[in-house]
Amino acid sequence: MSKPVIAIDMGGTKIKIGIVQGNTVLSSDSIDADSGSGLRKRLPFIQKAVEDLLDREGISLAEITGLGMASPGIIDSIQKKILSIDKKFGDAPGIHLEEWCLQTFNLPFSIENDARSALWGEWKYGKAKNFDSAVIMTLGTGIGSAAIMDRQLLRGKHFTAGILGGHSVINYKGIHCNCGNKGCVETEASTWNLTSIARSDKNFAESPLAHAPAIDYELIFNLAQEGDAAALHIREQSVQVWSACAINLIHAYDPEILVLTGGIMASSSQIVPYIRKHIETHAWTPWGKISIEEGEFPDTAALLGIAHLVGN
Question: What Gene3D superfamilies does this protein's entry cite (predicted)?
Answer without folding.
Answer: 3.30.420.40
